[in-house]
């Protein structure tokens, strides 16, 4: 079915344009989102808490004038349940915080509200955005994991329940579920967005992330979340000149399907006249996986202090992570931070004219079973270097399951990365 | 009066040692803290909320066994009112958040509690840790500002009401009040501590800070707040070999008293065989003041989103800061971040063998009047570079008012900085 035929399959910007042009009403789009949720939520399990259709529409109609004049027109957004909301519980995927009701909205939630989005609900997160999965299934194949930790946000957008959702990433928590569910995911550079009201896990690693159907939607959300202006960004497509292609094995285990997909992309790029280079093993990209793991264990154990006193309510993997962090010599942690920064500098020095890095967004398609959320190693290198990342759908395996690839930019150069992602998106579609 | 003669003038570690040796009881120390508060609080105004003596002692006695076995023995700590506490309001110095009661303790509060500190109360902060002063007076001269934004924490420690207090610094919010009130203040490197539960102002600038009477107390608190172990740190004194002395004028306006004090310290250092060098103007230290201001305006306006919708309840300086940040071209912000990092690299490259930087902690003594908290420019350079800082008392002007100096370390090398601060402390005492 053509995306234009089905309102709630439209991209955010497409829908907003249609609403402005008068060919679509916001209310009908909202209704279709609720239709979709009612039809699919029992199977997908994307939501932890949500507004009823009646409550949503009553609020929308009471404030119709505001929403009609707003940028986001009252369309629904899903918020990962690790991001504070004053009007709904924020339980962080843990029984420790059952019914927890923050007193403030996170700044990202406040910014979306002010731009005219309505929080339809809180989406399922793994336990404290780490490994223990929630109830969410992969919309492409419900027997598979949606990936984590932003499981519900990825599934809700991929399954056409909402046109936009927020997530967060400390290891692979946006890029991996976006890749597994087949939607666009974006993780901002370290320091890019205010993280006020988002549960911190690792201060050197945490990033805000977004899910949408197209890169142009991400650009719009980014404008709102950077509080840059109340109007849509000027969007340009930028064709990269030179790409550093990091095939899976340079980082870690990768499926043969994914390796074949990367070769297909490489051919498409060279066919378009883009120079593709591959890094030598002396760069040490695989080492970044370890450095990331070290930093994460150390910092998580300093952030989840209250929770570590209630370890009978924590999953075993999280207990182990905290124990590892607490037992770690501090020099290991400082060395890992320093080594990651040294590799970032080395990449800049050895590939000064590379526009972006291209790599698999995950080792392959979403694994079967839902007892874990898949391996995070494909994201660890970029996350520990604080780089912005976009994952794009479009490639599939022989069963039609998504094989996500990711485009990685320079630190704090997110705008340019998104312009290049638009070019790659057009190539893949 | 010798500090040992008065229990609540003792340093934290001195008191803990005495309690362990049986020459001091925790309860008598607690009682003296309350005696002091009762005698002085009306004039000093350090506290926003606090436990009554009865409630404190009842809690202590109910949990005596835990406290007797703990590291911090049930001694009282003051917590800046921008740091979340579940058992007391956290109002951030603003009428917007009057009566605000967070659902969780900040991780730093939780760590102190677990180590056996008892939160005596919340200390006065300026409005959102920016410029509008609270009610606090300078204990050295109540007609003068205590400095801000961690006004109450600095005054409470300097006035012997508590042996330890937490603050936070985005510009000069720990170093300046510690200097003005004449106590030891410490600001951790960027990324050093978990900031979970501390109101964010600027993600590239915010740091956790501490106040105590001696550097050894700071080292002890640091161990607790890094969750490094439940025992006291191994403390060593480190004499620096080479110091980069940044006289006030290299950064901005400085009083002649302060300039004279810096020359006295320079003589003391060279007298001890320490090599003292001064930076050339080509380093651009004064530019860092501007870069910091740019980064702060941009980021504050993205963190205080909810509040900026209630500007009739904001002070004029804060409104102006937010407006400046919102009107700023994004490239100005990114350029300022980049320029600050370039200057940090330049300092490392040009002075590879310098052990620490020594500079005035404030332009001079605490200014008269309490309608503002003094100028922050002496802290901006180090804060925008993410460096750890200790301010030390000991120097005074002709009226006996404190002239604080600060020792600045390498990023994430806080331990070494504190060892050198102990040496300088012994030189100044």
Automatic annotation (TrEMBL), chains A, B:
Gene3D superfamilies attached to this UniProt entry: Amidase signature (AS) domain
One example GO MF annotation: catalytic activity
Record-linked InterPro entries: Amidase, Amidase_dom, AS_sf
Boundaries of every Amidase domain copy: 29-418
A Pfam family it matches: Amidase
Record-given protein name: Amidase
Organism per entry: Marinobacterium marinum
């Amino acid at each position: 079915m053509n995306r234009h035929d089905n309102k709630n399959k439209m991209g955010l910007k497409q829908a907003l344009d249609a609403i402005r042009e008068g060919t679509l009403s916001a209310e009908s789009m909202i209704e279709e989102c609720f239709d979709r949720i009612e039809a699919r939520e029992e199977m997908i399990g994307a939501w932890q808490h949500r507004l009823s259709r009646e409550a949503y529409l009553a609020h929308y109609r009471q404030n119709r004038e505001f929403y009609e004049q707003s940028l986001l027109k009252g369309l629904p957004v899903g918020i990962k349940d690790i991001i504070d909301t004053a009007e709904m519980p924020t339980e962080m995927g843990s029984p420790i915080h059952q019914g927890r009701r923050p007193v403030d909205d996170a700044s990202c939630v406040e910014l979306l509200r002010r731009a005219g989005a309505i929080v339809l609900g809180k989406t399922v997160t793994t336990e404290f955005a780490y490994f223990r999965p929630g109830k969410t299934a992969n919309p492409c194949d419900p027997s598979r994991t949606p990936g984590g930790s932003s499981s519900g946000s990825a599934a809700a957008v991929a399954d056409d329940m909402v046109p936009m959702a927020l997530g967060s990433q400390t290891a692979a928590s946006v890029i991996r579920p976006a890749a597994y569910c087949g939607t666009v995911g974006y993780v901002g550079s370290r320091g890019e967005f205010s993280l006020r009201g988002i549960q911190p896990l690792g201060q050197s690693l945490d990033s805000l992330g977004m899910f949408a159907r197209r890169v142009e939607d991400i650009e719009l959300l980014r404008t709102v979340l950077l509080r840059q202006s109340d109007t849509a960004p000027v969007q340009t497509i930028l064709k990269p000149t030179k790409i550093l292609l990091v095939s899976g094995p340079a980082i870690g285990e990768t499926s043969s399907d994914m390796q074949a997909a990367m070769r297909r992309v490489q051919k498409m790029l060279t066919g378009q006249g883009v120079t593709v280079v591959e890094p030598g093993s002396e760069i040490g990209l695989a080492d970044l996986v370890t450095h990331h793991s070290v930093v994460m264990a150390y910092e998580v154990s300093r952030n989840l202090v209250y929770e570590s006193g209630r370890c009978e309510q924590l999953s075993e993997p999280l207990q182990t992570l905290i124990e590892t962090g607490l037992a770690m010599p501090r020099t290991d942690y400082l060395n890992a931070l320093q080594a990651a920064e040294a590799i970032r500098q080395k990449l800049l020095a050895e590939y000064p004219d590379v526009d972006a890095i291209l790599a698999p967004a995950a080792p392959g398609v979403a694994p079967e079973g839902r007892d874990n959320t898949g391996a995070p190693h494909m994201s660890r290198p970029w996350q520990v270097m604080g780089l912005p990342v976009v994952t794009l759908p479009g490639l599939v395996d022989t069963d039609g399951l998504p094989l996500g690839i990711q485009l990685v930019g320079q630190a704090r150069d997110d705008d340019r990365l998104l312009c290049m992602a638009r070019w790659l998106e057009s190539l893949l579609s």
